[in-house]
Amino acid sequence: MRAVLQRVRQGRVTVGDSVVGEIGAGYVILLGVTQGDGQAEARKLAEKTVHLRVFEDNQGKMNLSVLDVAGEILVVSQFTLYADARKGRRPSFTAAAPPDLAEPLISYFIAVLSELGIKKIATGVFGAHMRVQIENDGPVTILLDTNDL
Fold first, then answer.
1. What pTM does this model have?
2. Which of 79, 109, 123, 146 is catalytic?
3. Which residues contact 11 (CB under 8 A, 6 or more apart)?
4. Could you confirm whether 79 is annotated as catalytic?
5. Could you give the CA distance from residue 56 to residue 41 in angstroms, rounded to a whole number?
6. Taking residues 43-55, what's their average pLDDT?
7. DSSP 51
8. Alpha-carbon span 19 to 9, nearest angstrom
9. Rg of the chain, C-alpha, whole Å
């Protein structure tokens, strides 16, 4: 699994004209699933996400986790994180997991975030065309890949 974590002041996702998910300070997470991913990867990624210390303490140092700051999380599925653009001009998405594998793993990832103590979790709509508004804070953007954890 791959996640792009963006520390934000706020985030919002809309489908059509409807806001389907909205948060205040915390993370907007763009989340992709690849072939062969399972619940073990989703759990490992969720645990890393909630304990990663990228929020500033009173001295302005990145010493606090999203749990420490009672941050909120907006999770948006994004199969394009597994794009392969090494050949030609049009990316291939064959490494992205099919919807019947990806959707349940994204739901499981969200459930683990909740289990680990995140109080407010919002989401986009799996498979929908979404518009994501992000007010990045810092900016701080971190790429996590379960193959590297």
1. 0.97
2. 79
3. 21, 22, 23, 26, 28, 74, 122, 132, 133, 134, 135
4. yes
5. 28
6. 98
7. H
8. 17
9. 15
